[in-house]
Structures are given as structure tokens and as C-alpha cells.
Amino acid sequence: MVAELSAILGRQIRFVPLPDDEAVMQFVAAGTPEWIATNAVTQFGLLRQGTQNQTRDTVRALTGREPRTLADFLRDHASAYA
Would the pTM of this model clear 0.85, i.e. be above it? Predict the structure, then answer.
């Protein structure tokens, strides 16, 4: 994701791993309510454990079309990351 975002924005984006408690503190410092920060960091932890490693056909089944790639999504929303 970082490589895709860097290419689309034309600048280097880095992934900086943080301990969960530090990530919560950073979210809160940026104005996120603590309960949301804690829940977000918990979800990221579950993703790191591989809870979503399976590919599913939900988008195709619900919409009848192929899902967008990550690159397409980031390109379509690049202004949100500028």
C-alpha cells in the first residue's frame, strides 16, 4: 500500500511501525476520541494477525462487477491523501 501511495502521489511515503499503545496515543493527540483510537488499533492488530487474509467474492456477488484494485482506489482518492 505504501509503495502504491508513493507512486500515485509522486513522493516517498514511509511505513513506521508503532507499538499499539503509542499508536493509540498518536490518534488521541490528533483529536480522535480514545474509544475510537483503541478500537482502530485493535482492528489493525487483528489484521496483522491475518484475520482478513482470505480473498472473497463479496463485491462481485453484491454488485455484479469486479472490485477495484488498491491502485485504482488510491488513484481515485489521491486528493484525500495529498
Answer: no
